[in-house]
Amino acid sequence: MSDTVWSYRDSEWSQARDLIGYDVEADGGTIGTVDEASNEASAQWLVVDTGFWIFGKKRVIPAGTVVGMDHEARRIVVSMTKDQVKAAPDYDESDWADEDTRAQQRARHGDYYTPYSRR
C-alpha cells in the first residue's frame, strides 16, 4: 500500500481549511457530504456521510483520491465512480477510534483505494 493514497495531491487543498459540510462528487454525481476530515501528515482522509444514497453508511475516502477542490463552492471531486465508492469498505467509527484496529482499517481501506489514487 502506498502512502500517497493518504496525502492530498495539492497540499494547499486542506491547509487551514474546515472541509466539514463540503459536498463530495464522484463520476456519476454527488456521493455525500464531509462529516469528518483528518489533515495529519500521511494520514489525510475524509469521512463522507452518504445520506440516503447508501442508507446509513459512511465512507472513509483517502485524500489521494481527491482530484479537485473548490473552496468557494464547498465541493470536493474524487477520482472514482459512484459504484466504486458504494463498493468500498464500510466506515466503522469505533474501529477508527481504537488505536489497535485503526492500523488494520487503514491498511484495508488503503488496499481498496490505492488503484484510484494518483490517477
As a whole number of angstroms, the C-alpha radius of gyration is: 13 Å
Number of helical elements:
3
Q: Which spans of ≥5 residues are poorly predicted at pLDDT below 50?
A: none
Give the full name of the CATH homologous superfamily: PRC-barrel domain
Overall domain count: 1
Helix-strand makeup class: alpha+beta
Name the CATH class. Mainly Beta
Quaternary structure: single chain
Provide mean pLDDT, rounded.
Answer: 89
Would you write up a description of this structure?
With 119 residues, the protein is an alpha+beta fold. The chain has a single domain, classed as SH3 type barrels (Roll), CATH 2.30.30.240. The protein is built from 3 helices and 6 strands. It has a 6-stranded mixed sheet with strand order 4-3-2-1-6-5. A hairpin with a 2-residue loop joins strand 2 and strand 3. The protein is globular and about 40 Å long. 28% of the residues are buried. The model has no long low-confidence stretch (mean pLDDT 89).
